[in-house]
């Protein structure tokens, strides 16, 4: 990739194969040969359908699972070599995540405040007054601290829980934030607010965000770079504007066609066949055999064949 | 002070103020008191000739007498003691084996170790319990309380193992465990706060259920004549009643009273279990 970039993390040839069963194992390739750089203060959206391997990439970066192949370089070191306790803690001090399902992210036996207590217990966070800092972070994500702190997770809505997690991430002021389907549970009005907040703190603190989503509009709204994933492969990568305006891979093209626009109504005559894309991709790879991953213009690369 | 204590032990507070738990505990306490102090109140030995046979309950013989003149109250409270003891021992053994196998299999979920343990468990699950128990019991010539407990426990653990395994597997993959991991808290604390605490109430309830189940299984065996070769138990009292045609002779007190006590005890334990479920799970608490 081009020089003069402030790369905080570099993902190189990341592959994850899941094995299930002992006697008759089945292998699932969740991610294959994924490479990209994460730049300081930039938002990258990782776009793809369910099962395309987006979440797997997020979990690999968070060290929740180990890669089958490939490296993730942070601070000049492959993170799978980080084994020591103190070093792991330093890593998590700078790299954090927000998970997909806010209900599952809270231990149901504890009050929601626990997510803040945990980070204050583990990390030396630079705040004079812990409670005040938490309250401010909650106000930032448009939550009323008096109505949320001290509650049990089941007493709050998915959107409130998700905003609590965003507040937690903001309090930590990290280098890299993995945001998995971050605002899927928020309603339209809070959504923009939270997105803007994310972009602001991104620019202000130089935080890099990997925004995992299936929503193309959101991806365009928020991100500097876009990565399109299809069946565990990175099929298109580059500057968001270029990828959106000049979508080259047949899967990406299909995605853009599939987005309904405001003012557009369902049309019974128009046939839309998502199955068609499988065939299209196959033909596309055959036509361009042996080309591999090619940079078609500056800051825009496309996977032309999967071999 | 008191307020602080309850704030810290919130679960206990919810458990002890739950109506079902209070109801169940009261009955269970009563039955335990009966087992503990009954034999002291009783004026006879359980196999002693206590007077005329065929007597209905009276102030002299609280639960009447058997056909051969033994005191049913004495036999029942003594039998209750040994039945509770067998239930407690067998329940503990079954819970312990089930939890260990289940937790280990779940923790190493997906490995060959897990597969082997589950194969063993499945073999025990499909084995016809009662038939196996009859065979084992028939082979052992001398059967005391403890032997009874071991026999019953050996077939009671498999479902606990399966349930605990799946519980461990699902807890291990919860996103709040991931959140704790990326919050960099220690493995010990994750095991304690995220896994064990979500499991504790479950294990506690499993124990109550095992206590119930093993007690019933013991009584069943005893009723079939495969009980302890010495001593007395609830099942033996009932078996005697049936062998001597107690019911046909209209001696309801002989078989019905011990049976009723067992039924009430088991019902009360179920009440405690459902009540505790609500107390331990914030989602089921009435707000």
Automatic annotation (TrEMBL), chain A:
Gene3D superfamilies: P-loop containing nucleotide triphosphate hydrolases. CDD domains: ABC_NikE_OppD_transporters (cd03257). It holds the Pfam family ABC_tran. Keywords: ATP-binding, Nucleotide-binding, Transport. One of its GO terms (biological process) is peptide transport. The keyword Transport applies. Residues 9-256 form the ABC transporter domain. Transmembrane segments: none annotated. SMART domains: AAA. One of its GO terms (molecular function) is ATP hydrolysis activity. PROSITE patterns: ABC_TRANSPORTER_1 (PS00211), ABC_TRANSPORTER_2 (PS50893). InterPro entries: AAA+_ATPase, ABC_transporter-like_ATP-bd, ABC_transporter-like_CS, Oligopep_ABC_C, P-loop_NTPase. This is Peptide/nickel transport system ATP-binding protein. The lineage of its organism: Bacteria, Bacillati, Bacillota, Clostridia, Halanaerobiales.
UniProtKB/TrEMBL annotation, chain B:
It comes from Halanaerobium kushneri. One of its GO terms (biological process) is transmembrane transport. Belongs to the binding-protein-dependent transport system permease family. It is a multi-pass membrane protein. InterPro entries: BP-dependent_transpt_permease (IPR050366), MetI-like (IPR000515), MetI-like_sf (IPR035906), OppC_N (IPR025966). The chain crosses the membrane at residues 21-42, 84-109, 116-140, 146-164, 199-219, 251-272. It is found in: Cell membrane. Keywords: Cell membrane, Membrane, Transmembrane, Transmembrane helix, Transport. The keyword Transport applies. This is Peptide/nickel transport system permease protein. Residues 80-273 form the ABC transmembrane type-1 domain. Its main location: membrane.
